[in-house]
Design goal:
The complex is a heterodimer of chains A (228) and B (564). Chain A has 228 residues and is an all-alpha fold. Helix content of chain A is 79%, strand content 0%. Chain A has one domain. Chain B has 564 residues and is an alpha/beta fold. Chain B has three domains: 36-195 and 506-516; 202-495, 3-Layer(aba) Sandwich (Aminopeptidase), CATH 3.40.630.10; 522-559, no CATH class. Chain B has 14 helices and 19 strands. Chain B has helices at residues 2-32, 89-97, 127-145, 160-175, 244-266, 289-296, 300-305, 333-349, 370-376, 409-428, 448-458, 473-485, 518-544, 546-563; strands at 36-42, 45-48, 51-55, 60-65, 78-83, 104-109, 148-149, 153-157, 185-190, 202-210, 224-230, 275-281, 306-313, 321-326, 352-357, 381-385, 488-495, 500-502, 507-515. Chain B has an eight-stranded mixed β-sheet, with helices on both faces. In chain B, strands 1-8-6-5-4-9-19 form a seven-stranded mixed barrel. In chain B, strands 7-3-2-18 form a four-stranded mixed β-sheet, with no helix packed on it. In chain B, strand 2 (45-48) and strand 3 form a beta hairpin. In chain B, 41% of the residues are buried. The chains are: A mainly alpha (228), B alpha/beta (564). The A-B interface holds A 1-2, 4-5, 7-8, 11-12, 15-16, 19-20, 22-25, 47, 50-51, 53-55, 120-121, 124-126, 128-134, 136 and B 10, 13-14, 16-17, 20-21, 25, 28-29, 31-35, 181, 187, 189, 511, 513-516, 518, 521, 524-525, 528-529, 531-532, 535-537, 539-540, 543-544. Chain B: Belongs to the nicastrin family. Chain B: It is found in: Endoplasmic reticulum membrane.
Amino acid sequence: MTVFHFFNCAILTFGPHAVYYSATPLSEYDTLGTSIKAAVVYLATALVKLICLATFLKVSESDSFDPYQEFLKALIGFIDVAGLYFALTQLTHRNISQNHKFQAVGLGWAFADSVLHRLAPLWVGARGLEFTWDYILQGLEANANLVLSISLAALGSLMWLRKNKPKTLIPIIYLSAGIVATMPSITSYLRRGLGWHFPKVVGFELFTSLVMAFISWQLFAACQRPSA
Amino acid sequence: MAMASRKPRDREMLFDSVIALVFILVACVDLCDGATVVDVYRLIQYDMSGVPFGSRLASLNHHAASLHFSPHADLSRTVLLIPLRELNMSFVREYIAESKPLGGLIFLLPRMFSFENKDGKESTHQDGSKELLKNVLGELEQILIHTNLPYPVYFAFEDDNIDAVLTDIKKNDVTGQPATATTGGYKFVVSAPEPKKVVSPPITNIQGWLSGLKTDDDAHQLPTIAIVASYDTFGAAPALSVGSDSNGSGIVALLEVARLFSLLYSNPKTRGQYNLLFGLTSGGPYNYNGTRKWLRSFDQRLRESIDYAICLDSIGAWENELWIHVSKPPENAFIKKIVEDFSSVAEELGFTVNLKHKKINISNPRVAWEHEQFSRLRVTAATLSELSTAPDLLEKTGGLVDGRHFVNEAAIVRSVKLIAESLARHIYGHQGKNIQIFADNSNLAVNPSYVRSWLDVLSLTPRVAPFFSKDDPFVMALKKELEDHTDEVNLHRDVLDGMFTFYDSTRAKLNIYQVASVTFDLLLLLVLGSYLIVLFSFLVITTRGLDDLISLFRRPPSRKVKTA
């Protein structure tokens, strides 16, 4: 029965990634290799981040919100953006369109993130006898994270790969990318600075991820038009 | 150089971060395992002449229910959580005495019975309800002890966590719905190994010797007075059997009498011409098995030198009446003298001491009073007790209800005065004279704080003899205390024999998990499945168009046609 619950939570956490891959044209163009490469880049980035965190951050005894530490953490969080930049521009891909490239990279990125951050707690916790909503919420968070990663990858590909984009849209693109990249810090602030509970935070994440996805989709469409 | 020095530092950092990662994982494990944990105390498990009694199982893994369960429910896989306040005896008789199948039983005792709550201060209830609860618990204890229960039975104390759990369970039982995550289904888990027999349960009798003043050459000519109290207990929950009254009060009185006489005997002028023998005996609940072994180990001459023995049993909760129990006829000269000593002193102290005679039936294995073991060996002896009638086997042996706040220190202090004064009159030959040796405010006065502190210690120490280790700290503490007051202290070790076999595992940790039902999991699976299907359809429609989605379902048959 508890294995059942683990299975449920695993479906919620990792299912959308698989569905995304098989439902969109990604599967038809066989972009699995790109996703895997992006996942590897994510792993390397995570390691670098971890080292930076261990080096520059003090271990806080209390769970309180320290603005300076959080600022540092947000700065270190931007290493993610660098990793994404590397994944989008430097990796030699087979001849796939930009359209599919950012999706594949975002998907691999989000999947690696889910595996790294959520698999172990899920394995250890969701099989226990005690029932909590936490793992279901965590699965929902993984969904939000998938949407955010793909949005960020889309914005990144607009920033770095597309040369001829409307000048008026450039500040908006950068602003949106900045917001998406600082999402981890924002949620951390909500959780610890304002003392929000986990369900509320997850609701916020889901909401903002949908909003950001919509915005980046519109931006992407707007940039597509002149070239088309 | 700089490069070389940096490299190890990098490695160190990496090492640190790996450790951090491990710690995060461990923290996660702790967080996820955050179920409620409660200390529980198991019902005793023992065999009497090969017949099993008590709770026969220790491990528990069942769903919980309260007393509000539906009448036709099958309870063979359910733990019943029963607060003592709501217990009615008809249920107990029906379920326990008729041994209907149950998954397990957990009794919730009010906080005032907890030995950590020694003052009973929080009890805002009337004394009447306290007495009522005491009687209910006493009756329950006797039923539990004398029944064979083929499932685990535990006792726990009420606290905020378990009260919240109980409220949830009750709510759930009243609505009659199956347990789900939202309505509070609970699983109770005690993982304990199978109880093992206690091999050769030890008995340790402690004996202290205070020798009198020799006037002749032969010390053995001096008569001896023995003061004896049994110190171990027996109760429904061995880990809770602290026995403040039976026989904590006796131990305290004995130690205080020893202390008073050690003061007198330390000065040659006031040293009496009697040897004093103090005995703390084990095995009291089991027909005073330890006393019997201890007496048999005596040298014949020593046994014959005993003038008389005073056994102390349950003297901590009386108002104005004490009883002297004897087994020799009251006309016996020695008995007469003892009773006269005691009743005259009692009269001066303002209460009465009554004599009760109960003949010994040698063929009956039951030994109701400790002095009967002396009498069986033809030593004059009497038991001083607040009980007017002899208790049955395993009754009044310091069980669950025998807590600190049912014992009155003042009663013990008065008892000590009575014993010490009567002994002193006998020893110094002041019979009939109104002389107070242990008067209040003299340096020989009974020390109430000494009495209180020992009583507090005893009320925190479960003392079921079979579960004592060989050199139990408690026994060592008693020995040390007696060493302070007497000339010579000996430990007499033996093995509890007879018809009793005990099983270990007396306390455990109860894990309470809130669990979701299978229906909830199925429902969740259904919801998640439909979510994924909707997501899939949505993505296909937005990226490839509706036609693609429809063709997705048509493709397989067409492929079959192709292969055919």
